[in-house]
Amino acid sequence: MSFAIDELITKTFLEYWGFSQLPFPKVAQPENTFMDNRIDDALKRLMQLLSSREIGVVVGEAGTGKSTLLDVLLSRVSNTRYRVIHLSIPQPRPRELYRAIAAGVGVNTSWFGADALKVVDLLTYSYLESNRPNLVLIDETHILTPACLNELRLLTNATVKHEAVITLVLLGQPSLASTLKLPAMIPLAQRIGAWVALGGLSEQEAVLYIDWQVKAAGGPADIFTPGAKKAIYRCSQGVPRMINRLALECLNEGCLQGVKVITEELFAHVCKNLGPHLSN
Question: What whole-number distance in Å separates Cα of residue 192 and Cα of residue 169?
Fold first, then answer.
């Protein structure tokens, strides 16, 4: 019954605004992603990293687009050319981290003795057998300890005929950058070949982003007034996830009030009822 009610509410919302699908989705499909300058530049840096086979680091506050960047990258990396090992939730202890990497290669971790040497051997064998370099992507690496990060550095020592067998990409919040600046992290930091810092969208990009999302959902171009779009930008500080939430709240409120245009005044009304970290 609850699902039927949710479906009815969604249908009513779409019909009211003239959308063919929900706008401002939480998860965007890689082929339907707004390629702003930040994402485009970051993607180029990471694609270059695949050739140099070094370590890449992507840092950004929550909601700035790290997951979006990763999804687009994965959509463009051929599984026939690279063995992709993606750890969405990193393990905080080296042994568990090694087990997760081993599982990504397809090794039964119930009997696999997890340590750096054995994982290096495993990745090297995988490379020789398939002729595919290993691409290891680890999300949320800001939760890893310096000791665990240094263990990952050991994996990048693996080479075959003077070529590295692994490209390592670490993604995390800004505290990861602080950790990597510690003296103990110098050996790892010196191996970073691409450093990507994702900030928020500029005001111009935020306005284009809102327009793009409305158009992608099949809605009319003039739903949000220029003043409303600028107000959303100021409140969100250009963070895409915040823009999504604020714009969707405005559309929901507009539907309830029976208006067809999201004005700055309606946005101000919506802001009064928002939770923490969303209102000014």
Answer: 9
